[in-house]
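Can't attach files on this board, so I'm pasting raw text. These are the components:
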Amino acid sequence: MRYLPHSEADRQAMLAAIGVGSIDDLFADIPSDLRVHGLDLPRAAGEISVERTLGRLSAENIAASSVPFFVGAGAYKHHVPATVDHLIQRSEFLTSYTPYQPEITQGTLQYLFEFQTQVAHLTGMEVANASMYDGSTATVEAVLMAHRITKRSKAVLSGGLHPQYRAVVESLSPMAGDTVDALPADPTGTEDILASIDADTSCVVVQSPSVYGHLIDLAPIAAKAHEVGALLIAVFTEVVSLGLVEPPGAQGADIVVGEGQSIGNALSFGGPYVGLFATRLKYVRQMPGRLCGETVDAEGRRGFVLTLSTREQHIRRDKATSNICTNSGLCALAFTIHMTLLGEKGLARLARINHANAVKLAESLSALPGLTLLNDSFFNEFTIRLPGDAADIVEKLVAKGVLAGVPVSRLEPGKSELADLLIVASTEVNTDEDRAAFVAALSEVLA
Amino acid sequence: MSMNAKGRPTVAATAATSAIPDTFTGNRALQIEEALLFEVGRHDVTGVDLDEPADFAPRLGKLARKQPIDLPGLSEPETMRHYVRLSQKNYAIDSGLYPLGSCTMKHNPRLNEKVARLPGIGDVHPLQPLSTVKGAVELMAELGRWLIEMTGMKAVALSPKAGAHGELCGMMAIKAAIAAKGETRNIVLVPESAHGTNPATAALIGFKVVTVPARPDGTVAPEAVKALLSPDVAAIMLTNPNTCGLFERDVVEIAAAIHAAGAYFYCDGANFNAIVGKAKVGELGVDAMHINLHKTFSTPHGGGGPGAGPVVLSERLAAFAPLPFVRVEADGPVLVESEEALLPGETPFGRMTAFHGQMGMFVRALSYMLSHGSDGLQQASEDAVLNANYVRAGLRDLMSQPSGDRTCMHEVLFDDTFLEGTGVTTLDFAKAMIDEGYHPMTMYFPLVVHGAMLIEPTESESKASLDLFIATLRDLVMKAKAGDLERFQQAPRFAPRRRLDETRAARAPKLKWEKPEPWVEAAAAE
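---
Top answer:
Structure tokens for the assembled complex are below.
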């Protein structure tokens, strides 16, 4: 086996040095009747064979880059510069562990410090952590954090929150002692969430742009939440929007969580992604996850360490703010490298391109007979009402070589009033030809 | 693994004097100092060429951004240099032995990186029509088949994002199963030697944690468990092999007692690497166990993540597996994403995450499994255990083991008794290892052992590599005993940084870059 260095002679010499006769002697603590002798699985395979097997599975899927592609709703097809994937594969980043020995992991620690700064600036918040698993798990962690801060247990979820994010909150929060008041799906972006906020509310969770693409004015929601002593948790799934849209921090959010996949990270069928988590400095000791901080070494030189770890499970055990340990370090690295390449200038331009592409597509689609655009405002994603079942139409468009978007029924099954809705995203990777192909194919399908 | 607790010094290291002369740049040849991005980047520089879009009518309503973001950029060559220099300040498994106990820092094959980037794997969206991702679903089913066969369990929940997330998934399944029986059990038993994530997970979902005392050798006695059992006990969370590197030899009796009391057995699978192909946890009576794909199956740790923590479930818990899951039907695997798609008897407790889990890790792990095969997986476990015992044999006369010299599994545990009277602490000893070119072992964990040093060499190390490691530690022990305090208390001297002041970092947290005040910048410019 190519990954195992020992020769048989090595193994025999080592057993002799240990003072046992056979390898079985080292497994003597496993009761002999429970010892396994062979698994019902294939035997070892060389690189050629493994690559062929996995290549065959890969070939059964349609890659986003190979077709006009408009699928979003929480994960987005963006271009990732070649530099990013090269750098994250450097051995010293890829094959290093959590930086528990700071003297020999300053590389990881410095990029985490830079990552935290970028995320804080993007969201308009005072402090960001070193990443969570993804946007959905960051959201439920924010709900639990709000419970700790307010000592209240009712979480109000907007109907514009991604339904799978909602499901994550609805699964964990009640087991942690919360009640969840989830508003009905809000495809038109017109819900009245203020009416649901009261003196029992620990937090209001609002996604902007919403899963249906609407930009939500967070300021009045923050004002109402603060009036009754609740927190506003702002969620985003498209971080590129922050290049063009007013950040949640400037609109009064207390905790900002989101998905960072769009910057630096591949679609990868849903993971690994990178959860972003930011808040006000006054809440930092209630934050989940790792934090990197600046300090000095014994010679007075600047250096970085993991800090405030008395919040964390390895110190506090059952009193910790979260059970999280491993996070998304390498995805955070991809994010921070891509963001460094973009800079303010590049991110703003990338955001403008995304917005312009989505506006062009929305205009073309809504000109088709029988189609209605549900959005007044949006960034790079919007919802249209089709004259028929959206999932059926999407399937027919697959046959025409276009991946058109996410039928709302995929996220909200069993709700017939939502069955004709389609969430459509357009990013910088879409060309005029892509959009023309989409519009033409949809016209044919609807004809 | 974690560090802190018993025997760990809490004061900063004494001020050090450097024997190395200063350079103008502060650089030391290949060790090049790198400023922060925010100090070298500019707001009008970008390393990505994008064309400005033609004029269009924005649809942002009144929510267009009003203030600049404050995000400096770098050109592509500057970016390359910034991160290459940062990378050179990191230790990595590719550059040397990384014996962090309970972390399983083994070789990361590059074939796995290659297949993760295949267009039909890396470039597919989780919400594409299912008709366009049949290969992805088949891959998940195949990974599940391997995990189930290796563990002898009934079902697997693939979606948890890391080990602790898998623990949460398993414990949520247990909570749901208890609720389904109309019971209200609120106690979870956790041994003293457990990872911090175990009590943190149980407490997160409202369980009361009760500590199970350990035997002197760190294992759990059935009597100790039985003494704590009651109708209020929901589960035990046991790591096997445990964090002292020992197989819980009475695990079957403990499982039987737990089940007889109507409770469930959660197994922390962090140390699964020791027993793949040697024992099936399903046959030990386990009801749920997470598997860290980033440990046992070698997906890269990446500086702290991402991981993946699939959970295998027993017959008693299989029905509660969260959405989404893969159901294997006669004409192929089906991804079940919603309650509308459930069959009778499928009662998921909910959802752990958006989408379907860490596909990028699934494919790497499956590539690792296919490469090893059933024979290679068993050989890897045997070599991992062989290597740990070889290190034990090489050091047992000089270093102290908390429960005497006995066969260990894939990691060997020492305490700091051998350093008594030398003035050298476990921390000092670890930092001296850095100067010798090694990443230290896990320190001060498990908490039940004073000044613990937990060494997990993994199967990736050759005999020659272990011989040098053993010789190095022997030399350090002799130097400690000979009173060469300076070597330890001043260590590390050759790393990119000397010891860092963690107290200062925590007392006045500086968690992001702040622009210096103008007078500070002016003074620096003079």
